[in-house]
Amino acid sequence: MTNHSTIRDPAKSFHQTGILAVVLMSYFMILLDNSVIFTALPSVQNDLDLSSGELSWVQDAYTLVFGGLLLIGARAGDLFGRRRVFVFGLMVFSLASALIGLAPVGWWAIAGRALQGVGAAIIAPTSLSLLTASFPPGHARNRAVAWYGAIAGIGASLGLVIGGVLAHWVSWRAGFFVNVPLGLAMMFLAPRFLVETPRARGRFDILGAACATLSVGLMVFGIINTTQRGWVSFSTLLPIWTGIILLGCFVAIEAKATQPIMPLSLFASRRRTGAYLARLLYMGAMIGFFYFLTQFMQYVLGFNPLQAGLGFLPMTIVNFVVALTIPKIVRRLPASIPLLLGIAFTLAGMYWLSTVHPHTGFWDGIAPPMALIGIGQGLAFAPLTSFGIINTPVEFAGAASGLVNTFHQMGMTLGLGIMVACATGGPAQTSFSGQISAEVYTALTVGCLLLVLSFLAVLFLVFPGDLRAHRKRLAITTEPTVGTSRR
């Protein structure tokens, strides 16, 4: 007798593949522009005649707006329909990309990057909540979320490769123009594959939204300012402490709000809270790795933007291959096991890279530890994403997705600010290559510390509950069926 439960419906399979393609390509697009700029920065500076401060704002304007508006983007999806808001975000992001590509002067490019941040702050949380709404709980959803998490790692490293290739062979502007046809294609396909979610009844928490945006934005601004003014200047401390005070006000408002923009109940789960904290620390380490290793390859190894971008291929390829195995691994083991292993592999690779010196070669001193980091990213990102939204009520799916991306973005900003401050505060070296090597050593040593803290967050907050849940699942699946004798 044929087991009809094992027969796959081709139409349903095609539709689910379409959902994954639209969501993952859109998410990849915003991650791409988060890192594509790194290998293209020298070309941008020369073309637009930017000072060092203006150049930093080409990246920082995007980071500031993206991080500040994430929770609002998530809530807007709940209130107005996630597909509708998602398509609007794609429109904003595509328009901003075209404006950046056409930028004749620096302020135009910086304003375009800020507008890109608005689009990204809408796309990132709504894409994840659309994914969870489109797949029922179980293997299908776990597989979809695993792919989403894998894209978080692959997008960052592949962005450096694509950015380097385009900057060298075409122009840095091509890295932004490429988003226009991609965005238009996703806007066309979204209504055909994504189902509109019901609009949530209620009002927009304006006071909470204002406090959330201002608190995150001010803290991000203060952290960014450390690269120019240091950690003890008034222009750094004022926005950071103001942001912290507003964050406290935000928590107090959300505790009393009937329809909060960030339900505090999401932090009641130790696994979710641990995943948010671990993600913040992990991303803090990874952004410093990308930033400083790109400089090392260009300024010490003498790589051009193309070679520097291609230099990240060992990590990108390994990351992709390992990420494909995650759905199978988490069906047999608690998801916290590959997560802990992933952080450990990343730590090993980063510690190895921290030992670079002016005479380090690419194939013997850079590529092998990058492969270790690729293994780590492939193992870590999908579980980090899954734990960030685990057991989330349907009505809070948007808020949970917003928190995942908020901690992701804040981790990068905080990590880079700390690493740059520590790396540039060391003693001067006698040679330029020696100076860059010393900065890489200091920055990646700080990155190792952040990874140790990330590992501990998973070990003490995520692992115990995940192990209990896994044992419970095993007990249910091995429980004898009715009519089976117990001997």
What can you see in these coordinates?
This protein is an all-alpha fold. Helix content is 80%, strand content 0%. The chain has 17 helices and no strands. Helix 2 (52-80) packs parallel to helix 4 (106-134), helix 10 packs across helix 16 and helix 10 (270-299) packs antiparallel against helix 17 (432-478). It is globular and about 65 Å long. The chain starts with 9 loop residues before the first helix and ends in a 9-residue tail after the last helix.
Write a brief caption for the model:
By secondary structure, this protein is an all-alpha fold.
List the helices and strands and how they pair.
Blueprint: H1 10-48, H2 52-80, H3 82-101, H4 106-134, H5 139-169, H6 174-177, H7 179-193, H8 206-229, H9 234-256, H10 270-299, H11 305-310, H12 313-332, H13 336-353, H14 362-365, H15 367-388, H16 397-424, H17 432-478
